[in-house]
Specification:
The protein contains 4 helices and 6 strands; from the N terminus they run αββββαββαα. By secondary structure, the chain is α+β, with helices and mostly antiparallel strands. The protein has a single domain, classed as Aspartate Aminotransferase, domain 1. Strands 1-2-3-4-6-5 form a 6-stranded antiparallel β-sheet. Helix 1 packs across helix 3. It starts with 8 loop residues before the first helix and ends in a 7-residue tail after the last helix. The relative contact order is 0.18. The mean pLDDT is 92.
């Protein structure tokens, strides 16, 4: 079995810029990679796979899941959770789009009082 690579610092920095700005969103080491949580709910989880590719998982609105599935790569449906979406991260990643998706994921996972403090993308 191949070792999982550490997430590159430049990827972590881009994600931190978005997620650390959200109310009560905290970063912590996960069983593999790094995750961000609000309370006990995971907002996003980034990790390196045994195949050497980097992925991030996050929550999406239920009605958006089919759209992500139909889009195909870089998106994929997570294997756990009803509304989990994954995305491959590479040199083609649209970091602005990912930032919007992460803000949405935060608002899905956060208590309403915290989500109300966040300006969501249009």
């Amino acid at each position: 079995m191949a070792a999982r690579p550490d997430v590159p610092l430049d990827m972590l920095d881009r994600l931190r810029e978005v997620l650390s700005a959200l109310p009560s969103c905290t970063e912590e080491d996960a069983w593999v990679g790094v995750r961000w949580r609000v309370g006990s709910a995971t907002v996003a989880h980034v990790f390196g796979g045994e195949d050497g590719l980097f992925r991030i998982t996050f929550r999406a609105e239920a009605e958006e899941l089919m759209a992500f599935e139909r889009l195909g790569p870089p998106y994929f449906r997570g294997e756990w959770g009803e509304n989990l979406v994954g995305m491959l991260l590479d040199e083609q990643t649209d970091w602005d789009e990912l930032a919007e998706l992460l803000v949405d994921a935060y608002c899905i996972q956060a208590p309403a009082r915290l989500a109300a403090r966040v300006e969501r993308p249009a």
